[in-house]
Amino acid sequence: MDSSDAIVQGTSNDAAVSRESAARLGYINDPFIRHFVKRPLRRAPLINRGTHSRFDGVQRILRQFIQQTRGSDEHACGQIVVLGAGMDTSYFLLRQQGLLPHRYFEIDFSDITAKKAATIYKSSALRALLPQNTVVAEGGSELHSAEYSLLAGDLREFESLVVPKLMARGFDCTEPTLFLSECVLIYLDPQHSDAIIEWITANIAHAGILTYEQILPTDRFGQMMIENLRARGLELRGLHAYPTLQSNSQRFLDLGWHSAVAVDLATYHEQLLKDSERERLAKIEFLDEWEEFMLLAQHYAFTFAYTSQSSHFAHMDIGKPN
User: Smallest Cα–Cα separation from 151: which of 191, 195, 101, 107?
Assistant: First the structure.
C-alpha cells in the first residue's frame, strides 16, 4: 500500500472519533458509532457543532431519498451507494428505523472494509441488524447480502474494479440511485473523481449525489487548513479544481445534470437548522469560539445534484426539513 493511501485511510478513524464525541455528548443520535472507536476523545465544542451539522445534512438527504422512493405499499426501491464509507453507521441507523432502500452498498479500501466487517461481527448489536442472508467474503474484507453489501475497492479504479463488484451484488442501473461522498472525492485527483461522476452520468438515468467537501483554499483560513493537512501527509487533490460553492455545483451542471445546489456548513447551521435545534445544541456545551466555528464552517460544503427531473429527486433538497 502506498504510504499516502494509508494516511488518507486514517481520516476515516478521525471522522469516527469526532462522530463518537458528538454522539456521546448528545449532539447527534448515533448509538452505533461507539463500536467503531477504540480510543474515544472529547472533541472541542466547535468540532462537535460542525459534526452535528454534517450528520444532520447527510441524514436529511438519506431520509428524503427513502421517502421519495417508497411506493404506496411501503415497498422499498432505489439504491444507496456510499463512496469511501469508512466507519459510517448510516446503514444501521436506517435499518433500526425501518427506513432502508432496496439495496445499500458501501465501498472503501480493503483494509478499512476488513476492519469494519470484523467490528460488525464482534458486536451483537450491529450483527443483529445485518440481513439474515449476510455472508463474509474476500477473506473477511467484504460482506454480501441481497440488501446490504460492504465492498472493498479503490475508487481510482471505479469503472474497472468497483463497478463490476457492484454489478455482481445486484446493482441495477435502471433504479433510482443516491451516491454519498463525505470528504472522499476531494482526496482523489480530479481525473479520478471526474471519471466516477462521468460514469454515473452515462449509465444511470435517475441518479443523485450528495457530497461534503472542503472549499475556499485561497483565503488565509483555507491556506492554513491546507498547511495543517499537509503536515499530516494529507493532500486535498481536488480542492483547487473545485474551490468554491459555484464550481462544486457547476461540475455537475456542465455534465448535463438537471440540478445542482451547493451550500456551506455555516449557512446550513444558521438557516437550515430549526431554531429549537440550535437552542438544544447551545445547552449541551457553551461555544465561545463562535467566530472560529463560523470561519471553519464556511470552508466546508454540501453539494446535492441529480441527473433527471425524476420525481424521486425533484422533491429532495438539502434545504428541506427532515
Answer: 107
DSSP at 207: E
Per-residue pLDDT of 29-46, as tens digits, reads 999 999 999 999 999 999
CA 312 vs CA 67, 308, 317: distances in Å: 9, 9, 11
- Cα dihedral 66, 173, 55, 86 sign: positive
- What are the pLDDT digits (tens) for 256-302? 999 999 999 999 999 999 999 999 999 999 999 999 999 999 999 99
Helices (H), the chain: 3-25, 45-69, 90-96, 110-122, 124-127, 163-168, 190-203, 220-231, 245-253, 265-267, 275-284, 290-297, 311-314
- Rounded to whole angstroms, the Cα distance separating 274 from 286 reads 18
Residue 48 vs residues 24, 188, 297: alpha-carbon distances, Å: 10, 26, 12
Predicted model pTM:
0.96
Quote the cell numbers at residue 210: 450528495
Contact yes or no for 166/269 (Cβ under 8 A): no
